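Just scan this pair:

***
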Amino acid sequence: MITLYGFGTGFGLPEISPFVTKTEVQLKMAGLPYRKERAMPPASPKGQLPFIDDGGEAVADSTFIRAHIERRYGFDFDAGLSLHERAQAWAFERMIEHHVYWSLVGARWVDVANFAKGPAHFFDGAPEHSREKLREDAQFRVAENYLLSGLGRHAPDDDVELAVRSLFALSVQLGDKSYLMGNKPSGVDATAFGALAGILTPFFESRLRERAEGFPNLTAYVDRMMDTYYPEFAWTPLRQAA
């Protein structure tokens, strides 16, 4: 039995982290039984979530977990894709994880109201005398990483405009297909779903979310993925929430 370590439900999502969501969806795609445990990043071999324990072997980082699943269990997440399509899927994954993801981070952690409503509560269980300092330090570190990502170097409106260009690329790639690479889900769909659901959850208000809602095929895609991979989760379809 594989054990998946993640943050758990929150922010109106079945899993707070887009990267843990990616791995969880890929485990479901592969049809592998697993159990899920809550953890914090310091518990991971690489200091980040997700990580898995597979028969005593710890594997950290969602991309390396995918490679582990493909190698150990012989499951090809991109079965049916041509070499050209596999290359495209990889390029979209890199765009999502190194650009779209950071726009989500800015909306959650840098926006004062959203930070107070969401990530600040990660520290509710800390001793009262150190709680506020822990919150401030964590927000500072994330904001610093956001700056280093490149997006955080721009004015708020400009960073959203850059993020929307990536959302536009995803919308064009999806078109009227059910999934990004065709009418059957592939590995990149787990990545895209994790990031897009994180942006579109009604829990947070942001200009990024407002702009993302302007791509009807992306909102329908998130609803479809949620219904397929988290049917038990109480998710209000975005077409109704809007």
User: Anything to note?
Assistant: The radius of gyration is 18 Å.
